[in-house]
Amino acid sequence: MMEVLGNLGDGVLLSIQPLNLMLILIGVTLGLFIGAMPGLGSVNGVAILLPITFLVPPGSAIIFLAAIYYGAMYGGAISSITLGIPGASTAVATTFDGRPLAMQGRARLALVTAAIASFIGGTVANVLFTGFAPLLASVALSFGPPEIFALMLLAFATFVGLGGDDIPKTVFSICVGLVLASVGFDEISGEPRLIFGGITGFLHGINFLVLAIGVYGIGEMLWTIDSTRGKITTTEAEMTVKGTIDDAKEGMRRGWKGTAIGSFLGFFVGILPAAGATPGSLMAYGVSKMVSKKPKEFGKGHPGGVAAPEAANNSASTGAMLPMLTLGIPGSPTTAILLGGMVIWGLTPGPRLFTDQPEFVWGLIGSFYVSNIAAVVVNLAFIPMFIAMLRMPFTLLASMIFVLSVVGGYAATNDMHDVWLMLGFGLAAYFLRKLDYPLAPAVLAIVLGPIAEPTLRQSLLLSSGDATIFLTRPIAGPITVIALILILLPLFKKIWDRARRRNKAVAQGN
Amino acid sequence: MRRAELITAGVLALFSIYLMWKSTELDIGYTRGEGPGGGAWPFWLAGIMLICTGFIAFNALKRRSPPSQSEEPLLDRYGKKMLLLVGGGIFGFIALIDIISMYGAMFVFLVYYLGFLGRHSWRLTMTISILAPIVFFFFFEALMRITLPKGMPFLEPVFNFMNTIIY
Q: Does residue A461 sit at the B interface (CB-CB below 8 Å)?
């Protein structure tokens, strides 16, 4: 325990070094803006700004990106509340009660509640992270290819079982991402693979950023313009110090339960590979509504309905870092991109990271604490300004997002082929989004693909082609079983619902 | 939207079949001592995709998914116009990059988007359209040392001049 505290102290000291502290402040502020902008979430921010971090040492770079990530989690709520459009997918649940509050002229109450709940969620998650990360890391050391593949399976299973989206569409999305990840060269035989139309641009594979920017920067933006008809309405919110303090008190009085549920539930959902902050916040909202004494007030403007998802998405965003650092498995699309960044910087995420690069790991953990404090201060200070900024005409905002997407798509690989590909992905994403295909699984899969395929092949090689290796090994076995249960969960639920309905019908018949 | 969902499922099914066929260019079987062939992974994934499209089409036929219950067309008039103007704008932006450089294309796109689509005042449009490429130039070329496309040779003197400022 003392060792952990010592390491943490070093980490905090490292993250308040002038360069890192400056990066945290810039990152948190940028993140707030990015998160607050409809159409841009932490994924976009991190994806677009990833190339910028090649200027500074890896330790500082990840601190910067993590600060953006943190800031965006706070910022997402801002447009969810003031515009009624989730600033990011993680803030979808925040619109349920945030928007009604804003419509009642209580935008300030909602914004302040969101900020405080976010801070509490982040703090709880940081403490849990500090306590559990080294433990999980030591467990992770005993992981071989079958265990890692089982985890990949679990990652995809959580999307299928907990995502709440159309199952065949989710599975389709995962598989497309995995197939796109396999374009390029076959690692084992060295032969070119899936070179569509013989176009040489496919030889270097498809960079995950090309898909991520296409989906979020172009597809999602087109969808936003289409679904809002290009018109976005805002509500006025006045800012006074006394009023803000009163709102803070009211927010916590009515939202403490939601905050507590969000903080803990969010963290554990965040740890689950691939679940991340979006399902975390939605689940926290659902559970808070379930246990509330006045569930009917939810959806009509209850501060608890703002506090729960906001505490959860911040908590989950920290939780998602845990499997990324200790196992090399990202818990969300954003951490998937962070993971990609770490690979580019020459760091190998996974169990060895804690022993090989302790300074990097603890610097990052220390920066979580500092980022969290910085984010709440910056957020509260900027709330009035953000509201003013969001009154900026949407065309202005959208044009800058498109410019950033094109430049970002090019900068990722320095190949115009990828910019065209990005546009293609963007247009495809727009249509698929309209037809309710979830696209986050595809983004996640293209990042996990290069890990999933080799581990599967190595495992099958180990077992001479016997697939039961994933069930018989002590760690891989339970993980595979959980994954299979999660995959089958929607099916069980369907059968259960049907049986219950039938019982009800029988009971009514009597 | 039901028809759109069915057609999309059909197109995606064809795409899956194409991927399966394309995967067979490499070995899709299991080789003793070598493990699964290079084509096996994408082949079976594309197979799962194909099965999924079957379920998606079935759900659409049975009107079980939200889009198949919606009577709205996939693209209404606004959607078509938006796609043409915005999507076309981005297409033009990307097409211009190789001709008049990333910065030139960015300028044209911003003028188009802000001035024509956004109907902002010409003062605002020109201020942003001119400032943005300059900020991007110094940010990428000077600060990040990332070179973005410079277009056709006729622009060389311009960039030679810009480079004298940086270096």
A: yes
